[in-house]
Design a protein that fits this description.
Layout: E1 22-26, E2 33-36, H1 66-90, H2 98-127, H3 135-148, E3 160-161, H4 168-181, E4 188-192, E5 197-202, E6 207-213, H5 214-219, H6 222-234, H7 248-261, H8 274-320, H9 322-333, H10 335-347, H11 352-366, H12 370-380, H13 391-400, H14 412-421, H15 423-436
Parallel strand pairs: 4-6
Antiparallel strand pairs: 1-2, 3-4, 5-6
Helix pairs in contact: 2-3, 2-7, 2-8, 4-6, 6-8, 6-9, 7-8, 8-9, 9-13, 10-11, 12-13
C-alpha cells in the first residue's frame, strides 16, 4: 500500500487499480475468446464456462485439506448460483427462510434446552445431600453451561454513538429511509472507522443498531448513501437468521463447544499413558463431530442470509433507486483501490471532500474492468461460510429485477448539514488512520 506525505500531490490513481481484462484463448463451449483479470484462470465472458474453477493459489484455505476445499468450493458455487436463479425466477420473499430457518430454530431450541438441563443438573448436584462428593461435578456442569451459553452480541467498542440532538439532519434521513423501507427506526445510530456499515441487534432485548463506517460514507455519492442506509435498515425486516433471537444459538453454540472440547497440548505439563491417549482421541472425535454439525448449521443459515442480502438490496433499490443501489454494489468490487486512496489522503491531511474526489477517480479508472470483476467475484466469493452473495450477482439481481426510481432523494444541499454534524467524527477517524498506519 502506498501513501502520500504532507502536501505532496496524489499519486496517479490509475497505477493503484486493477488492470483491465486480458484475452486468454477461446471458450471450449461456445468459441468466444476467454478473459482473465487479477491473474485468475480464464473463463468465458458469454457463457461463463470455467468460472467455477477452484484456484488454491488465490484463496485462503477454509478446511486445510485442498481436496476438501476444492469440493466445498464447487458445492458453494452451485448453491450460490442456485439461490440466485431461484430468486430471479420466483421473486424475493420477505418472509423467506423455509427449511433452513426451521432447522436453525429447532437446533437453537434443542441447544437451549441442553444448556438449561446442564444448569438444572449442576444445581442439583451442588445442593443434593450437601456437602457431598458430587459438588465438583455440579460445578463442572455449571461451568460447561456457562461456556455454552448463547451469545447475543454487544455494541462494538470502536463504534461512537451519535446524539440525536447533535446530529438532527442525519437522524431525519435515517428516519425517512426507515419509513420508506418499512423498518423500525434503529435504537442506536453510531459511526466508526471501518470501510463498511452494518445493522444488527444486540443483547437479550435485541437493541437495534445502525453503524456507518465514515470512510465508506465519505466516498459515496448522496444517493449511494441513501442506498447504503436503506440496505442496512432492510435487514431489520428481511427475516435474516443472523439477527433472530431464536436462531443465534444454532450459529454460535456448537462452534464454541467444538473449541471447548478440542484437546490442547501444554508445554508446562508432560503427560503420557494409554488413558491420556484415549481421552485425546475421544476429544478430537467429539470436537470434529461438533464442528461438522456447526458447519452444517452455519451453511444452512448462510443460504438464508444470502436471500436476506438480496432482499435488502431490493429494498435499497426501491428507496434510493436501482441505479444508486447497483452503483453501491460496484463499489464493493473495487473497495481495495478506493480504501487505498482514502487512507493515502487521510495521512496527507486531506479531508472527506478530497477522499471522495480521489475515490471517484479510482472508480472511474476501474470502470472498464467492472464486467470482468463482477463475473470473477462469483468464483472468488463462493464459500459455504459466505453470508453475502458475490457482489457481481448482487449487481445482476438489481439490474435484472424491475427498475425503480428513488423515493428518498438526498441532494448535495441536504447532505451539507449532515456532513457538518459528522465533521468532528471525520477528524477523529482521520487521526486514527494517520496514527494506525
Amino acid at each position: 500500500m502506498t501513501s502520500a506525505e504532507g502536501g505532496a500531490p496524489p499519486a496517479p490513481v490509475s497505477a493503484q487499480v486493477t488492470p483491465g481484462p486480458r484475452a486468454a484463448g477461446a471458450c471450449a463451449r461456445c468459441g468466444v475468446a476467454t478473459t482473465s483479470i487479477r491473474d485468475a484462470e480464464p473463463w468465458c465472458p458469454r457463457c461463463e464456462w470455467g468460472l467455477d474453477r477452484y484456484e488454491p493459489a488465490r484463496r485462503h484455505p477454509e478446511f486445510g485439506w485442498q481436496w476438501v476445499d476444492r469440493r466445498t468450493h464447487r458445492l458453494a458455487y452451485r448453491l450460490t448460483r442456485h439461490t440466485f436463479q431461484q430468486l430471479i425466477s420466483e421473486g424475493i420473499d420477505r418472509r423467506g427462510g423455509g427449511l433452513s430457518r426451521a432447522v436453525t430454530v429447532v437446533a437453537s431450541l434443542l441447544l437451549l434446552v441442553l444448556v438449561a438441563l446442564l444448569v438444572a443438573c449442576g444445581v442439583w448436584l451442588l445442593v443434593h445431600d450437601f456437602p457431598a462428593l458430587t459438588i465438583p461435578f455440579g460445578l463442572a456442569a455449571l461451568g460447561l453451561a456457562y461456556a455454552l451459553r448463547p451469545r447475543f452480541g454487544r455494541l462494538d467498542s470502536s463504534a461512537e454513538v451519535l446524539d440525536r440532538e447533535r446530529a438532527p439532519a442525519l437522524f431525519r434521513l435515517v428516519g425517512e429511509v426507515a419509513a420508506a423501507v418499512g423498518a423500525p427506526v434503529p435504537d442506536v445510530v453510531a459511526v466508526d472507522g471501518a470501510f463498511g456499515a452494518y445493522a444488527t441487534a444486540v443483547g437479550l432485548r435485541r437493541t437495534r443498531v445502525l453503524c456507518i463506517g465514515l470512510p465508506l460514507w465519505a466516498v459515496l455519492s448522496p444517493q449511494e448513501r441513501v442506498a447504503l442506509v436503506a440496505h442496512e435498515l432492510g435487514h431489520f425486516v428481511s427475516g435474516d437468521v443472523r439477527r433472530g433471537l431464536l436462531t443465534q444459538p444454532a450459529l454460535t453454540m456448537l462452534g464454541a463447544a467444538a473449541d471447548l472440547v478440542r484437546p490442547v497440548k501444554s508445554s508446562m505439563v508432560e503427560t503420557s499413558g494409554l488413558g491420556v491417549l484415549l481421552a485425546e482421541v475421544v476429544q478430537r472425535m467429539l470436537a470434529r463431530l461438533l464442528f461438522t454439525a456447526h458447519v452444517v448449521l452455519v451453511g444452512l443459515g448462510q443460504r438464508d442470509a444470502q436471500r436476506a442480502e438480496y432482499l435488502a438490496d431490493e429494498m435499497s433499490a426501491k428507496v434510493a433507486g436501482s441505479t444508486a443501489a447497483a452503483s453501491l454494489a460496484d463499489v464493493l468490487l473495487v473497495v481495495d483501490a478506493v480504501e487505498m486512496v482514502v487512507r493515502r489522503d487521510a495521512r496527507a491531511g486531506r479531508g472527506p471532500a478530497e477522499w471522495r474526489g480521489s475515490a471517484d477517480e479510482a472508480r472511474a479508472s476501474a470502470a472498464a474492468s467492472l464486467p470482468a470483476l463482477r463475473q470473477l467475484s462469483v468464483r472468488d466469493d463462493a464459500s459455504l461460510f459466505a453470508s453475502h452473495p458475490p457482489s457481481g450477482l448482487r449487481w445482476r439481481m438489481i439490474r435484472e429485477r424491475p427498475q425503480h426510481a428513488p423515493t428518498v432523494a438526498l441532494t448535495e444541499a441536504r447532505l451539507e448539514p449532515i456532513e457538518s454534524e459528522l465533521a468532528r467524527h471525520y477528524e477523529r477517524i482521520a487521526r486514527d488512520i494517520s496514527w494506525g498506519g
